[in-house]
Amino acid sequence: MSRRGFTLVEVVVAVAVLATAGVALQRLVTGSVRTIASDANRARTLLVARERLAEAALRPPSLGRAEWIEPGGIRTTRTVEPTAHPWLRAVHVRAEDAHGRDASELAELVYAPIH
Q: Structural domains in the chain?
């Protein structure tokens, strides 16, 4: 007598294995999407910080602190401090999202001759 098909136990085991693989795959996709979103947010804050630092290099700002709310709710803070050399200023820029996450911080010395 030849046997055809699967037993109930074999079907249950196959379904359990497939369900486990499906749950693992769903968790992997969810984690990947979250990581991509975080990377995109970090890239946005880094671009904003670079833009504010480039502005400071083109037009040296006065000493002190300035804050902005950029499009997309990104909060930016620029601090300009004197250095030991009278023609150089230390510029620190920090950009973060509206919740204070994904912060990017840059610093540079800017040439600002005394006129």
A: 8-111 (3.30.1300.30)
- Token pair, residue 83, equals 């250095």
Q: Would you state the torsion angle of the CA atoms of residues 27, 31, 33, 35, taken in this order, to the nearest 10 degrees?
A: -170
How remote is the C-alpha of 53 from its chain's centroid?
A: 18
Q: Give SS3 for 103.
A: coil
Tokens of 73: 């709710």
Query: Per residue of the chain (115 residues), what is the pLDDT tens digit?
Result: 567 778 889 899 999 999 999 999 999 998 888 888 888 889 999 999 999 999 999 999 999 999 999 988 999 999 999 999 999 999 999 999 988 888 999 999 999 887 6
**Residue 40 to residues 22, 33, 91, 94, Cα–Cα distance (Å):** 27, 11, 25, 17
Helix, strand, coil shares of the chain as percentages rounded to 5? 45, 25, 25
pTM here is: 0.71
